[in-house]
């Protein structure tokens, strides 16, 4: 059974009006050593995507994660927050996550960061365990193949950006090119679930009952994360 395919492929995806493209969720998190993180989750496009603006309030530098659509809106919001985009970071190379890359790079001079296996243009290739520094913020790269081979999650100050690997109450599909239920099992059960319960989960799409979650909540409530062997999970993901 392919998970989330109805969300990702259905022509009846909920459309968001222009007036609701910019989410009202803004978090300012205080870190050690007097570093402050600005965190903005932004709803974009017709496929219920989330883009993320994450900046260091002290240096006013920021990363833009998965700038799919409404690039002008995203950059306008960065300007209002007083942030300079220095990096575009993509969780993976599917078009609904990279559509705005080149425009952002052209307008801001930002460098594009993607996993080294990504087939699309990038300035900085990364691999599992690498750290991307934005001001005083440190983004840890976690390679999480399964939805596609080049997928990564990003861990920064207790927040995990999960792209299309893990949604609120769901997991990513594996029937697209390069998808692998076996790899997704390893990513979910060996890399994501071992994280602390209070790690906040911010997905790449608004597919769940709420826009964000925690590892502990998903461990307890997400039916795709029910304890299974890899063989059982592969059967679960591929059965009709």
In short:
The protein is α/β, with parallel strands linked by helices and 240 residues long. Helices cover 23% and strands 30% of the residues. The chain has a single domain (5-238), classed as Metallo-beta-lactamase, Chain A, CATH 3.60.15.
Account of the 3D structure:
- The structure is a single chain.
- Helices cover 23% and strands 30% of the residues.
- The chain has 240 residues and is α/β, with parallel strands linked by helices.
- It is globular and about 50 Å long.
- The protein has one domain (5-238): Ribonuclease Z/Hydroxyacylglutathione hydrolase-like (Metallo-beta-lactamase, Chain A, 4-Layer Sandwich).
- The chain has helices at residues 5-9, 71-81, 95-98, 101-108, 181-192, 215-221, 230-238, and strands at 26-30, 36-44, 49-56, 61-65, 84-89, 111-115, 124-126, 131-134, 137-143, 152-156, 159-163, 166-167, 170-171, 200-203, 213-214.
- Residues 5-26 have low confidence and may be disordered.
- The N and C termini lie close together (5 Å).
- It has 7 helices and 15 strands.
- Strands 1-2-3-4-5-6-7 form a 7-stranded mixed sheet, with helices on one face.
Show the helix and strand layout.
Elements: H1 5-9, E1 26-30, E2 36-44, E3 49-56, E4 61-65, H2 71-81, E5 84-89, H3 95-98, H4 101-108, E6 111-115, E7 124-126, E8 131-134, E9 137-143, E10 152-156, E11 159-163, E12 166-167, E13 170-171, H5 181-192, E14 200-203, E15 213-214, H6 215-221, H7 230-238
Parallel strand pairs: 4-5, 5-6, 6-7, 11-14
Antiparallel strand pairs: 1-2, 2-3, 3-4, 8-9, 9-10, 10-11, 12-13, 14-15
């Amino acid at each position: 059974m392919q998970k989330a395919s109805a969300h990702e492929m259905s022509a009846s995806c909920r459309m968001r009006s222009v007036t609701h493209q910019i989410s009202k969720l803004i978090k300012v998190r205080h870190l050690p050593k007097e570093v402050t993180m600005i965190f903005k989750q932004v709803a974009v496009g017709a496929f219920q995507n989330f883009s993320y603006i994450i900046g260091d309030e002290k240096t006013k530098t920021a990363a833009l994660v998965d700038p799919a659509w409404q690039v002008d809106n995203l950059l306008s919001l960065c300007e209002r927050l007083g942030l300079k985009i220095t990096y575009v970071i993509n969780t993976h190379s599917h078009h609904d996550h990279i559509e705005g890359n080149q425009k952002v790079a052209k307008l801001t001079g930002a460098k594009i960061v993607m996993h080294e296996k990504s087939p699309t243009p990038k300035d900085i290739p990364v691999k599992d365990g690498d750290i991307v520094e934005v001001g005083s913020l440190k983004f840890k790269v976690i390679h999480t193949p399964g939805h596609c081979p080049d997928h990564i999650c990003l861990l920064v100050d207790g927040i995990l950006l999960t792209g299309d690997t893990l949604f609120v109450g769901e997991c990513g599909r594996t029937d697209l090119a390069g998808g692998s239920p076996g790899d997704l099992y390893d990513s979910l059960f060996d890399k994501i679930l071992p994280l602390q319960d209070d790690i906040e989960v911010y997905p790449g799409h608004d597919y769940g009952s709420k826009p964000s979650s925690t590892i502990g909540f998903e461990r307890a409530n997400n039916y795709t994360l029910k304890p299974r062997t890899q063989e059982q999970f592969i059967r679960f993901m591929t059965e009709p």
